[in-house]
């Protein structure tokens, strides 16, 4: 009974923090949905409806990391590891939305600035979902293996995510191709690992996009820590 009360007292601030995050992300996602829906209404075209699917895919790793974070004290490694693997498989879908800026071009019937705002809100949501999800996973790794392991995990996850973004944007693979089309996926990845100089764009995109994602993630984490310090001191 005492252990249960202790767990609840520790979980309540975490639950409130998660609820606040869900409210903010929910409002931001709602803005994207409204912008896409309104565009369809005024143009009678489904030009950017695919972004709704991309946002749904971006929500999957965030949903998985949220479940793991809220239940990590009761889960064993045999559950965490496979769920973590699925999380890593879907994680690139979140920052992938940044590359949907490639679709931005002047189109009749809608101001250019409107389409820019629409894509940017979706890209922002994808990036924030990625960072929120990675924060959860890094915390789990840190609690089990330490600070260095946590940050190493975060850096590797972002670099792998950047590679996944390349596979999705340029080679048109999806997360589920590891099941539906594993041989082609494995061959294309192995070919780029064995012959890196023949695929400069692969490593250019991976390293540059990975560095951008990592620096952005560190910035967000530092901003959160700086903002928390005055509150703790008070």
From TrEMBL:
It comes from the Bacteria. InterPro entries: DUF1361. The lineage of its organism: Bacteria, Pseudomonadati, Bacteroidota, Cytophagia, Cytophagales. The chain crosses the membrane at residues 21-42, 48-67, 79-98, 110-133, 145-167, 203-224. Keywords: Membrane, Transmembrane, Transmembrane helix. This is DUF1361 domain-containing protein. Pfam families: DUF1361 (PF07099). It comes from Hymenobacter lutimineralis.
